[in-house]
Write a structure and sequence with these properties.
The structure holds two protein chains of two kinds.
Chain A (H helix, E strand, L loop, with lengths): L16 H13 L4 E4 L11 E3 L20 E3 L8 E3 L3 E3 L9 H14 L3 E2 L7 H6 L3 E5 L8 H6 L2 E5 L11 E2 L6 H7 L7 E2 L9 H15 L6 E6 L3 H11 L3 E5 L5 E5 H6 L4 H14 L7 E5 L5 H9 L4 E4 L1 H7 L7 H6 L24 H4 L4 H25 L13 E3 L2 H7 L16
Parallel strand pairs in A: 5-15, 6-7, 7-8, 8-11, 11-12, 12-14, 14-15
Antiparallel strand pairs in A: 1-13, 2-16, 3-4, 9-10
Helix pairs in contact in A: 2-14, 6-7, 7-9, 9-15, 10-14, 11-14
Chain B lengths: L2 E5 L5 H10 L8 E5 L16 E5 L14 E4 L15 E4 L15 E4 L12 E7 L13 E6 L15 E4 L10 E4 L3 H14 L11 E5 L15
Parallel strand pairs in B: 1-2, 2-3, 3-4, 4-5, 5-6, 6-7, 7-8, 8-9
Antiparallel strand pairs in B: 9-11, 10-11
The chains are: A alpha/beta, B alpha/beta.
């Protein structure tokens, strides 16, 4: 009897190879996946926006000849000593612990050459970091690891972290293999344990308490330092309004593409909203309060280029922050390390096991031999180069739109390629005057 | 030694904290009296001089926050986060303290003459806290280092997710939190407890043998599926 011809194998869209591997992994280990990096799923993003450029109705500025300024001042509302940056791209908070000492030093060196700031993370301020960062923002996190009076006074600004884009509503994690003696000592923890940071601040809950907390921090630092409030993007309109009401000088909103050193995959991919969707509601909150450009807005989460930066600024941000992109500039995902990535079961470009401390690039590790691979001077130079490129790219776009300062970019300079991006960013679908959901924030 | 009197009804808080921060290291103004605090927040925060400060009345949130080296005494009650993140020195409140007293404290001694509210000693990181009365629920939550001594009772979930802080309670413990267990009190712990009772001024009214000792069971130090229902 002749056999009935079989259909070729067909993969399920719902049970795709990644999903099947996830179920198999969960069944064999009994624990959820923890990893680094940010959301990897496809999301509406800055790539879905385009600049219009100049035309008959508006004229461009001459590249290389006519000035397009990039300086930005953060903390003009209450602080006696605001933070002055040469370029509106800052380095986001990443801890010593999550990152090696040389990696933190390299971030400081690169940012300082570029004239911008770096930020501490969960675990306190190291002397090396303070030394190499001309402008250093000190994070005030729920765990308060390494929080002390001297560091508070040595900082140039304080960032009260309510949440981060990779895990709004979640606390930090640092797995035992990265809790060396020094990291443990700075955090008052036993070495080698899996550290679970709190997800809520221990001594305040809600916006009314936050207002009192900010007053305390201002009193401690004699009203000198700008106070930022950072939230993971989830309810950006209300979070921005409440942070402003609590007295923030600067609001930092981190979208779901924002990186993390170690978080449950389910959190990274399923909690929070895309960066693109967070900007306009935050800007609207500031505008409704009459404080746009008076309380500064910093946007982070998946910022990769001068184009991304310019688009965020055009939508109303005052600056952007980068984390993952800065690590790649230092040397993360280097194809020259492919053989070592393969040994770890991954490949250059996809490496996300930042939690396990075996980073061949020597960045997300506390192993002294691996950490020694990163030359902080050379890596700092790479970061400075990358920041310079981002800045020049943003200037090129801004000049094309006829802007003499990056902060003069405006939503009218943008159109969207997709209906999703149009609705989220509040700019028209390209070739139309249509904004889906306009006025329905 | 001169006594400096500052009246918070007559001058702004910012002036007070600014003056306390600006004191030279070898100041003669080593004894301060603060009048009319009237429940104000952030009184005497971030002080980093070996001075004494007596606050006559009640204070609001975060009094003596980040205290370093100073001896600060409050004659009334204290609001949320008394002596939060204290680095060193000594803070005493004669009355009660609200929630999160001594939160995240890195060092120094906090003595509470009355009761403390919920989350006393939350995330403590080396501070010693002695409470003459009772403490509320979730006290010493995620306590990392230091000692919490309670002469009265403790509320629900004492020492939840405890790291290496030591807890001593004389009265009843309503319930223990995840990963907190009673342990036999050894000589080392007894000596720590006796020393703290003495420094707090309660040695005459409470003896170490009247207390029970609690610490971390250390079962949650590494993620393991079998302990998932502890959270």
């Amino acid at each position: 009897m002749e056999e009935t011809p079989k259909s070729p194998p067909r993969w399920s869209a719902s049970f795709d190879p990644h999903t099947i591997a996830y179920i198999q992994r969960a069944a064999s280990t009994g624990i959820y996946d923890i990893r680094g990096f940010g959301a990897k799923r496809k999301l509406p993003h800055f790539d879905d926006l385009l600049f219009l450029g100049a035309s008959i109705s508006r004229y461009p500025l001459e590249g290389y000849r006519e000035r397009c300024a990039t300086d930005v001042v953060l903390g003009t509302r209450f602080a006696k000593k605001p933070v002055v940056l040469k370029t509106p791209v800052t380095i986001a908070g990443m801890s010593f612990g999550a990152l090696s000492g040389p990696a933190k030093e390299a971030l400081g060196r690169g940012a300082t050459i570029a004239g911008t700031s770096t930020t501490t993370g969960d675990g306190g301020m190291t002397p090396e970091e303070r030394e190499h960062s001309a402008t250093l923002v000190y994070q005030y996190l729920p765990s308060r690891y390494g929080m002390d009076l001297d560091s508070l006074r040595k900082a140039d600004a304080i960032e009260v972290v309510v949440g981060q884009g990779a895990k709004p509503g979640g606390g930090g994690m640092l797995l035992g293999q990265k809790i060396t003696e020094r990291v443990a000592g700075m955090r008052n923890l036993p070495p080698g344990i899996d550290q679970r940071s709190a997800c809520r601040h221990p001594d305040w809950t809600g916006p009314d308490d936050l207002e009192i907390k900010l007053e305390e921090l201002r009193e401690i630092t004699d009203w000198e330092k700008p106070i930022y409030v950072k939230v993971g993007a989830s309810r950006p309109y209300f979070d921005t309004a409440l942070a402003v009401k609590a007295g923030a000088d600067v609001v930092v909103i981190d979208g779901m593409q924002g990186g993390t050193a170690a978080t449950q995959e389910v959190f990274i991919e399923h909690v929070g909203i895309p960066t693109l969707a967070a900007i306009r509601p935050a800007v609207k909150a500031l505008q409704d309060l009459g404080l746009h450009r008076k309380v500064q807005l910093v946007i982070s989460g998946g910022i990769r280029s001068g184009a991304d930066m310019a688009k965020a600024l055009a939508l109303g941000a005052d600056a952007v922050a980068i984390g993952t992109a800065a690590l790649i500039a230092l040397g993360d995902q280097d194809p020259a390390l492919e053989a070592e990535y393969r040994k770890l079961g991954t490949t250059a470009g996809a490496y996300d096991d930042w939690q396990d401390g075996r980073d061949p690039a020597g960045i997300t590790t506390q192993d002294p031999e691996l950490a020694a691979r990163l030359d902080p001077v050379k890596a700092g130079r790479r970061l400075a180069n990358y920041l310079a490129v981002m800045t020049m790219e943003a200037q090129a776009v801004a000049r094309a739109c006829g802007k003499s300062h990056l902060l003069n970019l405006e939503p009218e300079d943008l159109v969207a390629l997709t209906m999703e991006a149009s609705a989220m960013a509040g700019v028209p679908l390209a070739g139309t005057d249509w904004i889906p959901g306009a006025g329905r924030l | 030694m001169t006594e400096t009197v500052f009246d918070l009804a007559a001058a702004p808080l910012r002036d007070l904290n600014g003056r306390l921060h600006a004191l030279p290291e070898q100041t003669n103004e080593t004894s301060w009296v603060l009048r009319n605090p009237q429940g104000r927040h952030a009184v005497a925060v971030g002080v980093d001089r070996p001075i004494s400060v007596r606050i006559e009345g009640h204070v609001g949130y975060y009094c003596a926050g980040f205290n370093s080296r100073a001896r600060i005494e409050i004659t009334g009650n204290a609001g949320v986060g008394l002596a939060e993140n204290m680095m060193s020195g000594e803070v005493r409140v004669q009355g009660d303290a609200s929630q999160a007293a001594g939160a995240t404290g890195r060092g120094g001694l906090l003595v509470i003459g009355g009761n403390a509210g919920a989350r006393c000693g939350i995330s403590m990181k080396g501070i010693d806290i002695v409470v003459r009365g009772s403490v509320g629920h979730m006290s010493a939550f995620m306590g990392q280092e230091g000692n919490l001594v309670v002469l009265g009772d403790a509320g629900d979930n004492l020492g939840d997710s405890l790291y290496e802080a030591r807890l001593f309670v004389r009265g009843a413990v309503k319930s223990l939190g995840a990963d907190c267990e009673e342990k036999p009190m050894g000589e080392a712990e007894r000596a720590i407890l006796a020393g703290l009772l003495d420094r707090a001024g309660f040695a005459a009214e409470a003896k170490p043998e009247e207390f029970r000792f609690y610490g971390s069971a250390r079962k949650l130090y590494h993620f393991h599926v079998d302990y998932a229902d502890s959270y």
